[in-house]
Amino acid sequence: MSIRFRISSTLRNLLFAAAVAVPMLTLPVQQAQASVFISVGFAPPALPVYEQPPLPAPGYIWTPGYWAYGDAGYYWVPGVWVQPPSVGVLWTPGYWGFVGGAYGWHAGYWGPHIGFYGGVNYGFGYGGIGFCGGEWRGGVFAYNRAVANFGSVHVTNVYEDRTIVNRTTIINNNHVSFNGGAGIQARASADEMRAANEHHFEPTSNQMEHQNFAAKDRSQLASVNNGRPSTTATSNVNAYHQVAQQHAQSQPISAADRRAGSNPNTREANQDQRIANGLRSGQMTSGEAAKADRTQSRIDQQVHNDRAANGGKLTGQEKQQINGEQNAASRQIYDEKHNANTVKPNAVDNREANQQQRTANGLRSGQETSGEAARTNRNQAGVDQQVHNERTANGGALNKQEKQQVNREQNRNSRQISNQKHNSNTAKPAPKGRGGRGR
């Protein structure tokens, strides 16, 4: 559902500047009572799990972290304590909503009451409905000790209400970051609708600057961190700005990062990368990798078939379906990497990881299509399963003959990957001005 609110000329200019600088679809902005959001063709990552940093001083209000979108794709803006623009106002977080085959960003705002923010459980008082982290009392902000982290700061305006936390929390075990489609099925209440039509303040200059710093921090890019940003939250904007500046100077966002952020095969590549990392570290066994490979092969093949049927593109419904399947695959990989099954890093698994890495690289560069990646993942699943079965039969080890057989099969897979990366089939990155198209 769209939030309607008044918007100042300053915010209109900021949104216009962002639309010019970033390859994305921006819907028209009306002067008043308008829906304002950026539109992207594929879903934002899941919300990362993090701890709230301590309150820097009395009077600050918590604003949760969120995924924003820039010319290098999605990036995480750390949660931060900020000073409100006026006494008596509260922060309604922004949210992503799926409508009409695209994911739209509904910007956050300050107002006398909390409006609708998609039912997204951002945590720390923003459980999906309203805000239970504090309230205004006689011109002074009072904090709910059941939610807020005071650290060593002495706070006198404190109360405790755990009941409201339970009443306003929407269970979101998978940390979904968007409303609608395969995401959170929440709709605005009558109170939230009324709050949407009240007088609002735009994000403060500190908040806008905070997001701009995050946009320049390569370690915050989802295509780089696979949904696990290096800075998830910070006590104040200045503390993070120093970190972001250091990151921007030591490892600036490159042209390759920008291509990866808009490459239609980026998420497929990220899943292959995660499997490779799990094999190298020993967090995933060959059997678990085989299962993940089979899942990824099916998704890759589905993307290929859907594109072939639609002139090289995916429809909005197909994008939504693929994203839901990738979310399930992502949870599968996470669970397999964090269960009790581990293996000591070894040469056989390391070569399996190298094959996954080459497939991921091919997808990111566009040298491999989704159909080609489906074949390599299918073949790799067969090898991984064979390794798992033989280890199970032999007390956890491969004999010399089995190692030689696996090596021959890996050589064939390696040649196949090389041939696919150097043939005439390529997957071009999404064209500029069409954010996320073709995902």
Class per helix and strand makeup: alpha+beta
Nearest-angstrom radius of gyration?
A: 24 Å
Largest sheet: spatial strand order: 1-2-9-8-14
Biggest pleated sheet:
5 strands, mixed
Mean pLDDT: 83
What is the overall number of helices?
13
Taking the alpha carbons of the first and last residues, their distance comes to 24 Å
| Share of residues in helices | 40-55%
Tally of structural domains: 2
Question: How are the secondary structure elements laid out?
Answer:
Blueprint: H1 9-21, E1 25-26, E2 38-40, E3 61-63, E4 66-70, E5 73-77, E6 79-82, E7 90-92, E8 95-99, E9 102-106, E10 109-111, E11 134-137, E12 140-144, E13 158-159, H2 163-167, E14 178-179, H3 190-196, H4 205-215, H5 222-225, E15 233-234, H6 237-250, H7 255-262, H8 266-281, H9 286-309, H10 316-337, H11 347-365, H12 370-393, H13 400-421
Parallel strand pairs: 6-15, 8-14, 12-13
Antiparallel strand pairs: 1-2, 2-9, 3-6, 4-5, 7-10, 8-9, 11-12
Helix pairs in contact: 4-6, 8-9, 8-10, 8-11, 9-10, 9-12, 11-12, 11-13, 12-13
Provide structural commentary:
This protein is of the alpha+beta class. The chain has two domains: 9-250, no CATH class; 263-421, no CATH class. Helix content is 43%, strand content 12%. It contains 13 helices and 15 strands. It has helices spanning 9-21, 163-167, 190-196, 205-215, 222-225, 237-250, 255-262, 266-281, 286-309, 316-337, 347-365, 370-393, 400-421, and strands at 25-26, 38-40, 61-63, 66-70, 73-77, 79-82, 90-92, 95-99, 102-106, 109-111, 134-137, 140-144, 158-159, 178-179, 233-234. The strands form five sheets. It has a five-stranded mixed sheet, with no helix packed on it. Strands 3-6-15 form a three-stranded mixed sheet. A three-stranded mixed sheet has the order 11-12-13, with no helix packed on it. A hairpin with a 2-residue loop joins β11 and β12 (140-144). α4 (205-215) packs parallel to α6 (237-250) and α8 (266-281) runs parallel beside α10 (316-337). Residues 1-37 and 429-439 have low confidence and may be disordered.
